[in-house]
Amino acid sequence: MNDSLRKFKYDSEIAFNEEHWQKMNYNTGCYEKRFANSRNNYRNVELERERAFLLRNKSLLNMEKLLVDFETRFKDNGGQVLWACDADDALQMIWDIIGKRSNNSVSRSNSVVLDEIGIDDYLKQKGVQVYDSSIGRYILKVAGKEPYHPVYPALNLSKEEIGQVLNKQFKLKADSTTKQLVNFVRHQVNQDLPKTQICITGANYLLADMGGVVLSENEGNIVKSCASANIHIVVAGIDKVISSVEDLSILIPLTSAHATGSGMTSVNSITMGPSGDDGRMYVILLNNGRTDILENEVIRQSLSCTHCGACVSVCPIYKNIGGYAYGTPYIGPIGTVMTPLMYDLEEYAHLASLCSLCGRCTEVCPVKIPIEDLMIENRRIVAEERVGDTRYDSLVKTLIGHCKSRKKMDCPQWLKKVEVKQLVNKNNFTKRMMPELAPKSFNQMSKTEN
Ligand code: SF4
């Protein structure tokens, strides 16, 4: 068993924790209500999703040209563009920019690509203080936890738990109201942001026609941190490039509705380059396995993802096993699809069989990614490459052997129970309910009736 599978088995045990289940159900239930209302704002939401699907696919198919266009225009605007093959490359580039500066601190936004390159650990090792511009991430850092959801990083914490965390650290009243908690954290974040001259963010989109970086948020802290810093470093996957600013009129409202159930994200900005005379702005274009995904005609569609988190919020598997079992920052259905190809097929092959194929993710995806089809393609690749945990295969083979043997099918109920129990124990499904076996096989029953 490899390390990722071992971690998966350990972290997914939370599925048997009643309290976790209730918290996840409550928090995702609140999201689903807002989401249903926001979809009602559209006269024809399906048409809008279809348009978004076409726009994102057009961008993917023209990615090479669009990236070059973006680079040319962004440089014309006074910015610099760097191309990173992988996470190490991107981290080295960041260090080359910030390493020699005396003010050894940075602010960072809530961005999955920054988690992908492991920026927090890297900068911590280098002795750099990292301030979070996101309220959720600030709370998580105080609690000593990792993000649980791409859009709601602290989804696994209840209001009471957040109150206890802030009470322990800052002596805030443990019974503070939600408003008091939010105001307190907002104040803390706002105090931290001006302490640094360097901000590092992801990007929602890169505009090829203008050479602009699009940032969408609800708290306004990214804009604040960019405004107070004189160095802005953007780390963006190469999949973030889109053709035109006009595409945003469809993509931003639709993604907002699916991400948080709001009509529109509160703060949307397009940054065209460095501000002021001494300002500098860099965009690091990150590959890190994305061209490998592009090569597969089916899985390629996953690169259309806007990371709105809608598929994560509605996924019954995620609600049960939580955000840590996936093992990478790419959580939920889309993470299940991307991780094996983006990271390591052998290490993450077990994710391919995680899905129940209920199809809810595909139903809610604003850019109409057929996530179930992508899951099935992943399974095909895993089976073809013969990677992953083979114990499950041998379990299925044994069961097929049983089903094909008339003698075994007709054996007494107590013997069948013993055999099934042995199989269940051997494969470590000890927390599953034992299936109730019929006293007689179908064949025996039909003979008795005749
Ligand atoms: S796959 Fe679709 S629903 Fe899931 S995060 Fe990406 S855009 Fe959102």
Structure report:
With 450 residues, the protein is of the alpha/beta class. The chain has three domains: 3-18 and 292-385, Fumarate Reductase Iron-sulfur Protein, Chain B, domain 2 (Orthogonal Bundle), CATH 1.10.1060.10; 41-286, NagB/RpiA/CoA transferase-like (Rossmann fold), CATH 3.40.50; 400-449, no CATH class. It has helices at residues 3-11, 18-40, 45-61, 63-76, 87-98, 112-116, 119-125, 135-143, 159-170, 178-192, 221-228, 248-259, 290-295, 310-314, 316-321, 332-342, 360-364, 371-385, 391-404, 406-409, 413-426, 442-449, and strands at 80-84, 105-108, 129-132, 198-201, 205-207, 212-217, 231-237, 241-242, 267-271, 280-286. Helix 16 (332-342) runs parallel beside helix 18. The longest helix is centred in the first third of the chain and has 23 residues, at 18-40. The radius of gyration is 25 Å and the shape is globular. The structure holds iron/sulfur cluster. The site of iron/sulfur cluster (SF4) has 14 residues, from helix 14.
